[in-house]
Automatic annotation (TrEMBL):
SUPFAM superfamilies, per database record: Metallo-hydrolase/oxidoreductase
Transmembrane segments: 12-31
Pfam families assigned to the protein according to its UniProt record, in alphabetical order: Lactamase_B_2
Taxonomic superkingdom: Bacteria
Record carries keyword Transmembrane helix: yes
Segments forming domain Metallo-beta-lactamase: 129-324
Protein name: MBL fold metallo-hydrolase
Keywords: Membrane, Transmembrane, Transmembrane helix
Length: 376
């Protein structure tokens, strides 16, 4: 009886190990053959990365202050990532304004910002079109089976109906900010890509001409038609496939003679916000990360209360919570980010815009403030 039990256990162990091995092999093949994972930096671009003050000797980038990707993993929460209960996703589509192709025909007098959900924003200013983190795909993952679908099945406007884009800004290479399929569809519409160090390799792997790509370290800037683009620090991490932190992450300042706009990218709360505010503030408008947070990764994403404080730190006249309203990437209720941010904004007397996806924000003219999420 004991011998049979031992034999059974051996067979089970062999089966389990074989299954794990097969999964590992399939995973390795997928990562090494699928274009979604991008490319690796080589040559002069690699030398430039290695000379960055923000680069470690071990081949990875670092934050300005101690930053842990995990601040206390709880195994008990793991199963919850695979469920949509507890209001983690909305019941049906959320409100959205569908835009006609003619939407972009008239040039706004003041900067106009249109939210596509999550951290994707189309900015029109000074006669220029700027698309920030254009993740327009259905799932923020390298394969549809590896992520949760977009809350709304349709975008506010199709990619085909978008106008020519002067600059695409990328904050970092995570799938919910840099999407292979979106870049494939957009690349012929885009004149220039401004990206943090290391991200160029992904784009060139996907067929974007290297002449259209400019890489930035923190505090580096470029002037385009009188508009200054500055790559500023963020407190986060990067990685596609099995790699981590071998490309930089960034926030962006967009500043002209008449306007100043800030985009936080993904970031935990940190001292960099005050430094950015002191160097480039005040900002007419700031798009600030607010969503996909949890105490288990408290250094790399802000709580809503920290988001509002960060907008004070950068000296934003008006702010908008982003990084919510499109995907489930954390365990909080889908409305939790905006509800908590609204409460803190009222407490600190911070002016906050809350547009519906597709609704225009015109700086100094129209700041939508309806509580549309309560109607879902």
């Amino acid at each position: 009886m004991i011998k049979k039990l031992i034999k059974f256990i051996k067979v089970m162990l062999i089966g389990i190990l074989s299954f794990i091995l097969i999964i590992a092999i399939v995973g390795a093949i997928f990562v090494n053959t699928s274009p979604q994972f991008g490319g690796k930096t080589t040559g002069e671009d690699l030398v430039r990365m290695e000379n960055s003050p923000n680069y470690n000797g071990d081949g990875s980038f670092k934050n300005l202050e101690l930053t842990l990707a995990s601040t206390g993993l709880k195994l008990s929460t793991f199963p919850k990532f695979f469920t949509n209960g507890d209001n983690k996703v909305p019941q049906g589509n959320i409100p959205q304004i569908n835009l006609p192709k003619s939407y972009f025909d008239s040039e706004p007098q003041q900067p106009r910002i249109t939210w596509f959900g999550h951290s994707t924003l189309f900015v029109e200013l000074e006669g220029m079109n700027v698309f920030i983190d254009p993740m327009l795909g259905d799932v923020p993952a390298p394969h549809p089976l590896l992520g949760n679908a977009r809350f709304n099945k349709e975008l506010p406007i199709s990619i085909n109906n978008l106008p020519e884009i002067d600059v695409v800004l990328i904050s970092h290479d995570h799938y919910d900010h840099l999407d292979y399929g979106s870049i494939q569809q957009l690349k012929d519409k885009v004149k220039l890509f401004y990206v943090p160090l290391g991200v160029k390799a992904h784009l060139t792997e996907w067929g974007v001409s290297k002449d259209k790509i400019k890489e930035f370290d923190w505090w580096e800037k470029a002037n385009l038609q009188g508009v200054e683009f500055v790559s500023t620090p963020a407190r986060h991490f990067s990685g596609r496939g099995f790699s981590r932190n071998n490309t930089l992450w960034t926030s962006w300042v967009i500043k002209s003679k008449n306007n100043a706009i800030f985009f936080s990218g993904d970031s935990g709360y940190g001292k960099h916000f005050k430094e950015i505010g002191e160097k480039y503030g005040p900002f007419d408008f700031a798009m600030m990360e607010c969503g996909q947070y949890n105490e288990q990764w408290a250094h790399i994403h802000m709580s809503p209360e920290q988001t509002i404080q960060a907008s004070v730190d950068v000296k934003a006249k008006t702010m908008m919570p982003i990084h919510w309203g499109a995907f489930k990437l954390a365990l909080h209720q889908w409305t939790d980010p905006i509800e908590r941010a609204s409460k803190k904004a009222q407490e600190l007397h911070v002016k906050m815009a809350t547009p519906i996806i597709g609704e225009a924000i015109v700086v100094d003219t129209n700041y939508p403030s309806s509580k549309w999420w309560l109607k879902n």
